Amino acid sequence: MRWGVLVGGTGSNLKAMLTSGFSVSLVISHKAGVKALEIARDYGLESCVLMPKDYPDRQAYDAALVEQLSRFGIERVAMAGFLRWLTPETIARYPGAIVNLHPSLLPAYPGLHAIERAFSDGVLWSGVTVHFVDEGHDTGPIVAQVPVPRLVGDALADFEERIHAAEHALYPQVLKALDRGQAALIDGRVEYKKENDQWMHGH
Prior knowledge:
Number of domains: 2
CATH architecture of the largest domain: 3-Layer(aba) Sandwich
CATH superfamily of the largest domain: Formyl transferase, N-terminal domain
Number of strands: 9
Strand content: 15-25%
Strand order of the largest sheet: 3-2-1-4-5-6-7
Radius of gyration: 16 Å
């Protein structure tokens, strides 16, 4: 499978994918000059920047996004710090083939600033979720989750670091499993073809 990764920030999850040996064919950022693009260049990956301000609306932006994905023969998409909601047309173009990483145990704390909100609420546990993208906001079928504790004495930075470490461990594993066909979205449900990894749970 040819995977594209949508980024917009530090690229720490992109780097985790690449250092794990996961194959990425294209990186697209919605911001210029971000660290994720440097990582793509360091690994010799094709990359491009699509700035929202250069397009009149979401539909035009996503049309350009799909054009780039198609140009490079991308079959599946992993979102990693790409802070834009995809249009229904884009999601329909890649059914069951777009996944996202979210820093909470969904359905808790969807949307932006999930780590900060969980910390502010004083939760004892949060975590990391990998899910398929649907037309809602962080509402798609869950592929895998890992819980992360908020320890006594944690500052926000400590909690963030622990969650990011969980992201870097989980996301490459899930992407490799999806790439191998060990998990898939079938009729709106996540199905696992065989039980072989501890992080996999039926839904």
